[in-house]
Each structure stands twice: as structure tokens, then as C-alpha cells.
TrEMBL record:
Residues 19-190 form the Isochorismatase-like domain. GO terms for molecular function: hydrolase activity. The keyword Cell wall biogenesis/degradation does not apply. InterPro entries: Isochorismatase-like_dom (IPR000868), Isochorismatase-like_hydrls (IPR050272), Isochorismatase-like_sf (IPR036380). The keyword Hydrolase applies. Keywords: Hydrolase. The lineage of its organism: Bacteria, Pseudomonadati, Pseudomonadota, Alphaproteobacteria, Hyphomicrobiales. It comes from the Bacteria. It comes from Hoeflea olei. CDD domains: cysteine_hydrolases. SUPFAM superfamilies: Isochorismatase-like hydrolases (SSF52499). This is Aldehyde dehydrogenase.
Length: 197
């Protein structure tokens, strides 16, 4: 038996009061990315941002940030002394090429999921958000956790095929294959544009 090659679906489900959520496009995470690949991810993300702004829909920027002493960091960071996205450093800032506006929503998280220990639930409820389009990094970690936690809240979830990425492409492919058609739908930008319109 030959295993079927996984490909993203091209049809979009009905999206109810959607918002765009962009996860962890911070300088520290993107520093190791090859410049052309980083530029493609940022351009794809900005294209999605433009689609949502044109439709009058919210854009939510999620970023990770920790204290200098790592007292609020997760166990692996504390155990290994990993110092990424430290408050007050350029590494904790979003990439300067992203089209962030002052009235956008920003969520600062301390764990993989943007729902854990934040006010994201209240933010979504106040704006009556019923579905999320998710972009950002890393597909197999924070993006996956965001999608699963949104799905557990009975939200429709779309993952952007072009505007998500990972330093671990193998795990990213497995994660997308697992989520697509179950937890979320993986769609390209044209399908997302059609769904938002």
C-alpha cells in the first residue's frame, strides 16, 4: 500500500467573526532563519494582515517575553538557562518589517499556548470572535498549541500554509498533517482571502 501524500485542502469552511492571530515572530526566534526564508514568512504574514484589515477584522499579535532572571520562564528554559525573548531586549520585539498598528491587540505569553495565563479568552469574547486564522512560528510547538486550545473552545481554526513556519520542518509537516481536517484546516492565502471576503 502506498501512503497518500498529504496536501493542504483548498476549500474554506464558513468563518464566523474571524480574527487573525500571529504568533511569535520575534527577533530572537527569527535570528537563525535564512534571510530569504525569513523575508518570505514576513511578506506572507503582512499579506494576511492586509486581508484582515481590508475586511475590518481584528489582528492579534502574540509574543513571548520573560524576566531577566527567568523566574517566569518555562521549565526547559530555566533548566538549561535559555535566554530568549527577555523583556526590554530587541530580541523580544516583533520583526520591524511586520505591519503592526497601535490599535492592534497584543498578547504577551509565558508558555506555548497564548491562552495559558493571559487574557486572550476575554479579548476574544469581548470582540465576539468565533474563528481564528493562525500564522507564525513554530508550527509544531506554539502554533499547534494555539490551534488545539482554540479548537477546544469550539472555534473554527485555519492555519496559513504560507505564513506559518518552523525551524523543524519534519515536525512541522507531521503537525500540519495531524491537525488538518481535525483540529484546523490548512489553507493557502487565496483560500483565506475568499473565506474572509
Amino acid at each position: 500500500m502506498v501512503a497518500r501524500q498529504w496536501r493542504p485542502d483548498v476549500t474554506a469552511p464558513d468563518l464566523i467573526r474571524p480574527a487573525l492571530m500571529v504568533i511569535d515572530l520575534a527577533n530572537d526566534f527569527l535570528a537563525a532563519w535564512e534571510p530569504a526564508r525569513r523575508a518570505r514568512l514576513i511578506a506572507a504574514t503582512n499579506e494576511l494582515v492586509g486581508i484582515f484589515r481590508a475586511a475590518g477584522r481584528p489582528v492579534i499579535w502574540v509574543r513571548q517575553e520573560f524576566r531577566h532572571d527567568l523566574g517566569d520562564a518555562f521549565l526547559e528554559m530555566r533548566d538549561r538557562g535559555v535566554r530568549l525573548t527577555i523583556a526590554g531586549t530587541d530580541g523580544a520585539k516583533l520583526d520591524a518589517q511586520l505591519q503592526v498598528l497601535a490599535h492592534d491587540i497584543t498578547i504577551v505569553k509565558k508558555r506555548y499556548s497564548p491562552f495559558f495565563g493571559t487574557d486572550l479568552d476575554q479579548v476574544l469574547a469581548a470582540r465576539e470572535i468565533g474563528s481564528l486564522v493562525i500564522a507564525g512560528i513554530n508550527t509544531h510547538a506554539c502554533v499547534r498549541m494555539a490551534a488545539i486550545d482554540a479548537y477546544q473552545r469550539d472555534m473554527r481554526v485555519i492555519l496559513s500554509a504560507e505564513a506559518t513556519g518552523s525551524y523543524d520542518e519534519d515536525h512541522a509537516r507531521v503537525s500540519l498533517r495531524y491537525m488538518d481536517g481535525k483540529i484546523a484546516r490548512v489553507l493557502d492565502t487565496d483560500a483565506i482571502r475568499a473565506a474572509i471576503a
